[in-house]
Amino acid sequence: MTAAGSADQMPGARKPGVLLRAQGLRKRFGGVQAVHDISFDIPTGAVFAIIGPNGAGKSTLLNLLSGIYRPDTGSIVLDGVDLTNLPAHRRVRHGIARTFQKIRLFKHISAIDNVVAGFHTRHDIPIWQYVIHGPAWRRDRERCRDEAKRLLAFMGLERCAHLLAGSLSYGEQRMLEIARALATAPRLLMVDEPAAGLNAAEVEMLLDRVNVLRRNGTTLCLVEHNMDLVMKVADQILVIDYGEFLFEGTPVEVQSHAGVNAAYLGGQLQ
CA–CA distance from 182 to each of 83, 121, 226 (Å)? Predict the structure, then answer.
């Protein structure tokens, strides 16, 4: 995504259809079947949520989609491109970005430099200019910093641009990680537990930003325990339990499904 104009100007809408298709994904760690024969489609421009109890395999599933793990069996196709055996950095170039349940920032550099680091897949200058900094390198650097400022503003962090990432509050670091992921211009943005540790105001900010991204055509895959947030923002929800498919449907369908409520020990989704 290229941030241009005002803070809310995100990418334009894309044609409807399936952006990502996962089929028959399985992943075993020793004797533990973390993901067992899971298939799903993520529609273009939608917010697709993955929920389930602790240990259900949600983060493992994101790791399979992003290339941190490779499936034992199954396939992952993004807009017709088979990503199944591609490493994570190649998937980023095809348009997949993610955040992590445990924040992974460069904490000893500034917030803006963290976001600039996200532009590593989007540089278009001769390789020698990284050694001898010529005009093209300077133009590219300025472009990246300008876009980084707009992404920080979009996530409500404009005042934090020159502060060390490690000095930011927990909620600000969460928002910064999303800004850095957006710098890669993702076609599919995957966020793992983005509301974890946020206060009520920060959750509302996150909800608003997700809605802006969706309105402007960004596809999101959300793993989240905050069911109130999920039910407000998701278009489609995949429920997994013990690494297996349990149910998929709209928020209303999920809330009324007896098996889902049983997996959550009842009441949480009501």
Answer: 20, 12, 22
Give the span between the Cα atoms of 70 and 76, in whole angstroms.
Answer: 10
Q: How far is CA 28 from the centre of its chain?
A: 23
**Residue whose structure tokens are 């300077």:** 138
Alpha carbon of residue 140 to chain centroid? 25
**What is the CA angle 54-182-137, rounded to 5?**
140
pLDDT at 126 over 60: no
Residues in contact with 263: Cβ distance below 8 Å, sequence separation at least 6, in sequence order? 52, 53, 239, 241, 246
All domains in the chain, ordered by first residue: 17-95+186-270 (3.40.50.300), 108-184 (no CATH)
188 pLDDT tier (thresholds 50, 70, 90): very high
216 with 184: CB under 8 angstroms?
no
In one-letter notation, the amino acid at residue 57 is G
Whole-prediction pTM: 0.84
